[in-house]
Amino acid sequence: METLTILGGQPLRGTLAVQGSKNAVLPILAAAAAIPGRFALTNFPPIRDGIVTRELLEGLGVRTFLRGDCLRLDSTGPVGSAPDPKLAGRLRSSVLFLGALLARNGKAAIPLPGGCVLGARPLDLHLTALEALGVCVRCEPGRLVCAGRPRGGTVLLRYPSVGATENLMLAALGAAGPVCILGAAREPEIRDLADFLTACGARIRGAGTACLRIEPAPLHGAAHRVLPDRMEAATWLCAAAATGGSLTLTGLRPDHLRPVLKTLSRAGCRITEQSGRLTLCAGPLRAAGPVVTGPYPAFPTDAQAPVMAALLRAAGSTVFEETVFEARFRHVPALRALGADIETAGQLARVRGVKSLHGARIAATDLRGAAAMVIAALAAEGETTLSQAWHLDRGYGDFVERLQSLGAEVHSA
Ligand code: UD1
Fold it and tell me: Using a 6 Å cutoff on CB, does residue 19 contact ligand 1?
């Protein structure tokens, strides 16, 4: 998807089933390389990051078969230790193959990962913790080389990094003794990885808390249903809120979305929940800040841009503070081009609600920033052309079709 044309002004209405979570499925796919076995993943999302990871697994020797939303994997044969640099370079999550391949082969050579550019994205937490477990880590130009089976022990993360926690969980699968991760991330996707690994025979305690313990255990293949994507859900809700629409989502976990739901309610949306369904009815919006991002269970950084887009026409001022990534206001210039009144200073942004937005020619910068731009364009009068729309394919399956099913006038080229 190169370019999107969006004719704004239509309130979004309808029902959508939430897809499987991008951030849950990617570490689970890496785990399938760590454990020799046959796996069946249902609710597999049709997103580009999933497709690229699948190609990367195939290159390592893991066989994969996709039918509908069920991805079957067979990693019973030999699995390589060096993922294809071209594929790995397109994904931030390729760094998780470090832990996975260490567990499987006792060595791994990983090209420096790609993904969204959100400022410096260091790997010091991953590497220091692996070294503390006795792994030898060497940084070569353009790639990381690790060797040695991790020994058991306790590692302390000074920040609850999602990726570092997942990498350590995967490396711990091949460790000689129990591994305890203190200061672990508590995101629902960590819990989903732990649920998958537990189904594979792993002995894990404390998933979803800051103290995670993984004990050595015999491992095997398993079936697992991927967690619903809380960020996809947040995006659709923000689009409905921004356009004054009403939307029902099915197959989601509202308990994973509390800070976003609270902000949208404070902004004047009526939100009701009933047995796995959530309905949002938007009214006239008012400012709903401050929105301060942070590690789970705080407000998720991935929802910051979509929620900002939803509040561009809300009466009053909303302040956003981004504490997780240093460059996560990259969507702001495009929102301004659509008529938004946003002032930024370092990690702070203040949105003053405007009466109306208008179409413009803009370019996507990153996955969630692109989603924010689409939300603002849907709420704007006139036509918007969004170039570099391929960013959206990384995390949203059938994006255009799903928007059209809600009444949006969107076309891709
Ligand atoms: C994951 C998610 C991403 C989400 C983020 C925070 C995936 C594929 N991506 O990214 O969508 O926005 O969690 O919820 O799951 N940091 C260090 N050193 C490290 C590692 C991280 O300083 O070794 C810093 C990062 O620069 C950033 C912060 O910690 O400022 C959070 O990063 P982290 O939690 O690791 O995010 P990711 O796993 O990259």
Answer: no
